[in-house]
Backbone:
């Protein structure tokens, strides 16, 4: 899987809010995300979650405090939203195989809060072999992984992801740089073109 390189990437301090991009359907964990938002609000967290996408589960998110549902978005609109957010949320209940939205987030230096299953652990780990620590906060990960279907773990990870830039700005910048480096090494168009030529 590859995606276009990003020419200019805002730093963590220039970003605000969280982002979900995808079909609003049960397998995408929309119900878990809605419950995580409710729990976060109960704890006094005030970040905004922007939702790009349509589907039968939209009603679960629409109307929740701090949630803005924008509906379908063009690739350019998705890229712009990724450049503005502090983290992408991928709470899928099913094991996804190389979700494109995660690859596009890495290209924007955008860390990911994702379900710890399928290819997400491999996509977020600096080393393909370093996929063991659930919810790991070390510099070897371009995001945070949570058990699928666990609204409490997701709520905690969302708060950490949004607030990291204030709590540990050095770590937030390191995580962004890692995401960009991982994209350049694994998912840039030139990398795939070279691989195809080698085949």
Residues:
């Amino acid at each position: 899987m590859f995606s276009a390189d990003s020419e200019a990437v805002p730093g963590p301090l220039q970003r605000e809010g969280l982002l979900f991009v995808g079909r609003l359907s049960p397998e995408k964990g929309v119900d878990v995300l809605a419950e995580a938002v409710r729990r976060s609000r109960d704890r006094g967290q005030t970040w905004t979650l922007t939702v790009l996408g349509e589907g039968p589960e939209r009603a679960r998110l629409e109307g929740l405090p701090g949630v803005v549902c924008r509906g379908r978005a063009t690739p350019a609109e998705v890229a712009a939203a990724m450049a503005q957010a502090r983290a992408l949320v991928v709470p899928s209940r099913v094991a996804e195989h190389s979700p494109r939205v995660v690859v596009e987030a890495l290209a924007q230096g955008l860390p990911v809060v994702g379900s710890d299953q399928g290819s997400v652990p491999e996509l977020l780990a600096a080393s393909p072999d370093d996929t063991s620590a659930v919810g790991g906060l070390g510099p070897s990960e371009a995001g945070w992984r949570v058990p699928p279907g666990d609204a409490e773990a997701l709520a905690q990870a969302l708060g950490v992801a949004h607030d990291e830039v204030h709590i540990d700005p050095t770590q937030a910048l390191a995580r962004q740089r890692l995401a960009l480096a991982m994209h350049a090494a694994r998912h840039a168009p030139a990398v795939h073109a070279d691989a195809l030529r080698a085949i």
The beta strands are 18-21, 49-52, 67-71, 87-90, 112-115, 143-146.
